[in-house]
């Protein structure tokens, strides 16, 4: 699934993880990683590729899967694929099925958590917050740290907001534009959606008055808010209202 970041194409590949050392021994996860590695080479994905490991199968996986996931991650990293991310439901992290603090080489996590205003897992690098963004039956996510684009930035302890995301407006524009992370409501009759943080490329859709959505600050100069990857709206107080963080 290629996408554009800062003018360059970034390749993101997905693997549905099924390794189970409890039933089949450690070689099960390692062999799965070997299979995935061979596919990466066969399809021409180089070592800048972001490799996402989807850990969610309740039947194939044992109760605690950190060890198995680490075997998979360690093998790929040893082959030079270091842009790794582990995707799972928030409940898998909070229940201890995956111990994020014990993941190999501090691999970042991508948390799926719907119907809430935050991921619910401390230190999440990315958050999939809906499977029906704007009624399009499409998963929408926030990439807080750049992990999905292969450019990882540090995050503050106890937060899911990145150090490089602005939280304050340009001084001259204080009171005119909003630059907070949290829940927003559309107050204008309609607000256009853009495909870039500078608000120059339109997405061909609008958000209706009364729509509520979680946003994070994007471009301080253009006064934009990110509503999902590659989708942005204005932070003009005449068009949107900040509800809560």
Account of the 3D structure:
It contains 4 helices and 15 strands. It is an alpha/beta fold and 245 residues long. The protein has a 6-stranded mixed β-sheet with strand order 3-4-5-6-7-8. Helix 2 runs parallel beside helix 3. Residues 1-8 and 154-174 have low confidence and may be disordered.
Salient structural properties:
245 residues; alpha/beta; 5-stranded antiparallel β-sheet; 4 helices; 29% strand
Strand tally is: 15
Instruction: List the total number of helices.
Output: 4
Percent of residues in β-strands: 25-35%
Radius of gyration, in angstroms, nearest whole number: 19 Å
Average predicted confidence as pLDDT: 83
The H-and-E topology, N to C, reads as EEEHHEHEHEEEEEEEEEE
Shape: elongated
**How far apart are the first and last residues' alpha carbons, in Å?**
31 Å
Helix/strand class: alpha/beta
Largest sheet entry:
6 strands, mixed
Low-pLDDT sequence parts: 1-8, 154-174
* Oligomeric state of the chains in view: single chain
Helicity range of the residues?
10-25%
Main β-sheet, spatial strand arrangement: 3-4-5-6-7-8
Short description:
With 245 residues, the protein is of the alpha/beta class.
List strands and helices in order, with pairings.
Elements: E1 3-5, E2 8-10, E3 12-16, H1 21-24, H2 27-42, E4 50-54, H3 66-78, E5 84-89, H4 90-94, E6 109-112, E7 126-130, E8 140-143, E9 182-186, E10 190-194, E11 202-208, E12 212-217, E13 224-228, E14 231-234, E15 240-244
Parallel strand pairs: 3-4, 4-5, 5-6, 6-7
Antiparallel strand pairs: 1-2, 7-8, 9-12, 9-15, 10-11, 12-13, 13-14
Helix pairs in contact: 2-3
């Amino acid at each position: 699934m290629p996408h554009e970041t800062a003018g360059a194409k970034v390749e993101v590949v997905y693997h549905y993880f099924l390794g189970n050392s409890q039933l089949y021994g450690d070689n099960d996860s390692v062999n799965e990683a070997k299979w995935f590695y061979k596919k990466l080479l066969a399809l021409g994905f180089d070592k800048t590729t972001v490799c996402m490991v989807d850990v969610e199968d309740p039947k194939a996986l044992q109760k605690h899967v950190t060890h198995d996931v680490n075997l998979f991650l360690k093998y790929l990293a040893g082959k030079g694929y270091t842009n790794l991310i582990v995707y799972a439901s928030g409940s898998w992290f909070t229940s201890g099925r995956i111990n994020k603090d014990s993941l190999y080489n501090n691999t970042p996590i991508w948390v799926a958590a719907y119907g809430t205003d935050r991921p619910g897992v401390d230190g999440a690098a990315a958050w999939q917050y809906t499977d029906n963004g704007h009624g399009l039956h499409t998963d929408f996510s926030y990439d807080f740290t750049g992990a999905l684009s292969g450019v990882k930035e540090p995050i503050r302890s106890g937060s899911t907001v990145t150090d490089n995301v602005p939280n304050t407006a340009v001084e001259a524009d204080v009171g005119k534009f909003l630059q907070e992370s949290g829940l927003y409501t559309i107050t204008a009759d309609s607000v256009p959606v853009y495909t870039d943080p500078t608000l120059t490329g339109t997405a061909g859709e609008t958000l209706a008055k009364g729509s509520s959505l979680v946003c994070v600050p994007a471009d301080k100069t253009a006064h934009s808010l990110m509503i999902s990857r590659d989708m942005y709206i204005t932070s003009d107080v005449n068009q949107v209202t900040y509800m809560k963080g």
